[in-house]
Model the fold of this input.
Amino acid sequence: MRARDKPQNGIAGLRHWRYDLGAGLQVALVSLPLSLGIAVASGAPPVTGVISAIIAGLIFPFLGGAYVTISGPAAGLAPALLAGMLMLGDGDLTAGYPLLLVAICITGFVQIILSLMNAGRFSIFLPATVVEAMLAAIGIMIIVKQIPPLLGDLAPLSKDMLTAILKLPESLTRIEAPVMITGIICLFLMFYLNTTRINWLRRVPAALAVAIVGIILGYVFNLEPRFLINMPDNILQGGITLPDFDSVWNRTELWGSVLIIVITLTLIDGIESLATIAAVDKIDPFQRKSHANTTLRAMGVSNMLSSIAGGLTIIPGGVKSRANIDAGGRTLWANFYNAVFLIVFLFLAKDLISRIPLAAIGAILVYVGWRLCEYRVFKKTYAIGRDQIVIFLVTIVAILATDLLFGIMIGIAAEISILVYLLSPSFRTVLTGRLNFSQAFALLLRNLLDLFRSPIIKLKEEEHGGLPHFQITLGSVVCFNLLSLDKLLQTMPERCAVTLVASESGHIIDHTGMEYLHDFQEECLREGRAFRLVGMENYYQFTPHSLSARMHDAKLVQQKATLSARSRMMEEIAAHRELGFSPSVSGVLNRHDFIYLRRGDMRQESNVMTGEHNSCHIKLFDYSHTAAPDYYTELRHTLIILRPQAENMQLPDLVITSGHYLERYLVGLEEMDNPELLAQLQHYSVYRSPGGPDPEAILKRLLPFLQVNSGLFIEIHDNAVLIFHPGQDLETEDGVQKLFTLGAEFCAGA
Done:
């Protein structure tokens, strides 16, 4: 889809109001209980969470930076806000909150300054695994601190994690049975609704359902007011806490604490904001790219206004953004409508909100925390590499033992240590006399400094076909030296061709470097820019994961890896059909812009067969990805992509899907209206490109083919065809052979 055809923000985005209005309502139903819970987890009055979400929704759409991202208070900052409140108030939350608001206001101002300095790009300095570990540690913090209220223990919240963990046994002595029963039922419901396969239940906002069930149980058990959400009688008079600028200015002993809180909030807010918009961009059906610095500036303005109105910090939220996309939201106006609905709820349903038990809110937060730190997060990190799981665990332990700021610094130090260790000579070379101690130390120091030097060794500019072509020779590429490479790539002409050469002078490409190179390759593909990455064949890959770190070691690369049983089977099929074959795992490049290949995250291909077959260019491969609502569970299918060799054969853009599979992602297409033809297609639905060629002729030719083969997903775009079985995991040998047969029949029929 061309950029000008994609929904835009601002006045132009109002034409999509039907989609955004409905999505805004669904997001508000999710946002209300979440915002209340985040405020409770932060130690702030519950109403402040809703105030923050309202301000974010009213401000963010007019400042832009993203497209379908919903901003507001986020659970990721709750532990930092709670710690800051306790620090400034000397253990008193009520005294600390007005002082914390000053720190939030200053944080917003700092973010605006940083955005003007184009500081958004500095986020690539942070190792991707350290960011993931920070979020996992936050998840653990949220769970630990929500267990007591889930059981009915309303003892004061602890300042640090170690104290909170040590106090957990005490909570067992203060259990309130009705509260605990309410909490357990709500917790079960929260997990069940988010994992059920029943379609109509999956459409129910889990957080809203839990809040409603909590209210009912509160009436059944006649819970005391102290176990319920505390809402002010008058929102405007008693619900807004003003920042205490005078106290902070006059009490110089607070300045050091305020500075630490501002640094912590700026760092975490920036990291999580930029990580979230990058993640949301990957699942945006329109594949639009957010602007990091514009988003950072928008968050800064929103934070300043939120703090002045007594609200919490504001960042883009992953849970609410995914809810927006799944509900069909198309622009930032969905965020605005979300705020409007929250205002209505706040003033018309205040008494009902005040009946929500804290145990129900605790259940919602425990689930949010679990999603940040569940075992599959660890499993995914381990799959990327053992080096990454070490950094991951070190960062988590460091954050839990100290705090977020120092924990992140320790995680970065762990990343540096791992890289230096991998690049340093074995101690055996010193013991055997091949290197003396001074030589070994000099080599160690050089390798350390290389991590921060520009990876660009040589830049060569040529002209091919009237367009500039840049060839960049690279050394080691790691998170700490990506900035100079990113600056060069972002300043190149839009239509230029780029070739990156991973040279023998490079020693290592770390996980963050691999992620950056893959993202840039995808960006070039979307923009129609020619791109090549050469020289990777001499780098040894730590694990089969496409984004794992790699070291330059031609000897190890030459040692043929043992193929799995699956790869051997696929290799034999490819050899029999005289096709090229590669078993290696790599990131998927969506060259034909298929809608199916846009969705989800962690898109990878392996066991790839390519070549000419039955008058078609063919590519058959095993494909895996993650998708909503569970972004850690891997989905796997075997796909075939065909492109007719005949240059005069033009295929219409078309999607033929069993039932209404992927209907909400087919945003650029319209459902075909031909009752007679659709009746013959039985269980299939057909979507076509508005204003495109009439697909009726090709559908009639394919009718016998589709009637015999049920349950397929077929997409035609850019004169190429994608076919697979959505209900089938990786195809067996017979299934793979059948895909070839289906492809041959399709090409012949087309």
